[in-house]
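Sorry, any thoughts here?
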Amino acid sequence: VLNQEGAKLVANYSLFLIYQISSDVKMIYASNGIPFNFSQPHVNEIIFSLYANNTYRAYNVSLVSSNITVDDLRSGDVNITYKYVNPDCYVVYVNASKEFYLIFDQGYSPNWILKFSNGTINNNHYFANGYANAWLMPKGSYKVKIYYSPSVPYFKYMEETYIPLLLAVSTLVLFRNKKSISERITIKKFF
C-alpha cells in the first residue's frame, strides 16, 4: 500500500518495517477533511490504523481539529502549485472549484501564517493528521503565502537581549580602559 503513496519498503524486521520516502512527496496539497478529536487516548495508534488499513488514504483525506467536514473533493476540483522560497516561506497558487483543506506538511505551530495576496490572513488554521497544519480554503483562483512568524519578532528579541548586553559590556570595557590609562599617568608622574 505504501508503495503507491511514494514510499518503498527497504527493510523488514518483523516488529517494524522501514520505508524510504521518495523525494517528490508533496509538502502542500489539497485534501478532504474529517473532524477528529486529537485529545482522545491512544490517538497515534488510531491515526496509524486509519491510514494503514486503507480506511483513509494519504493526500486524499486528512484528520483535522475542526468541526467542518469537507468530504466531496475530487481529483480535478483543486489545482495547487507552490514555490519554495525558504524554510519559513512558501508561495502557493490555487485554482479551486470547491472549498477544501490546504495541508502543509510541516510541524504544526500557530505561528505558521497563511496570507492571501490582498493581505487578509486566514484564521481557519487547524491541527491535521497528528502533526501538520491545515487551513480551510475557499473556492476560487488566488495566490497565498505561508510563512512562519515567531511569537516574539526577531528584532524585538535583539532589542531586548543583545543590545543591553552589548551596552553593558562596552561600558565595562571603557571604564576598565579609562582606569588603566589614569593609573599609567599617575605612575609616570612619580617616576
Notes: The mean pLDDT is 83. The chain has two helices and eleven strands. The longest helix spans residues 154-190.
